[in-house]
Specification:
This protein has 91 residues and is mainly α. 7% of the residues are buried. Helix 1 runs antiparallel to helix 3. The longest helix is centred in the middle third of the chain and has 22 residues. The chain has a domain of 56 residues. It is rod-shaped. It is built from 3 helices and no strands.
């Protein structure tokens, strides 16, 4: 039995839009790394100051009432967690 001729199909080429083309941006924003490092340093410094001179610092002594130690450690770790959150976006 004879075979039928196959039609040649042109390859699909999408239309090129006229106008300005957007270029994909790779990498991190310029503010990300300094903010991440500053958050780590502030959190670590807060914890060190609390443990070394916590009762002598008026602000740290009055925060949290009965849960003073827990609240101050939470503040320090919150800064560190923000730093880790920013670190996940760093490329």
């Amino acid at each position: 039995m004879p075979e039928s001729k196959r039609r040649k199909k042109n390859a699909y080429t999408p239309e090129q839009p006229m106008g300005e083309r957007k270029v994909a941006q790779f990498g991190s924003p310029a503010w990300l790394a300094p903010t991440m490092v500053a958050s780590f340093v502030i959190g670590l410094a807060y914890l060190v100051v609390f443990y070394v001179a916590g009762p002598d610092v008026p602000f740290m002594n009055s925060v949290g009432g009965d849960l003073n130690a827990l609240v101050n450690v939470g503040i320090g770790f919150a800064f560190i967690m923000v730093g880790f959150g920013l670190a996940t976006r760093w490329k």
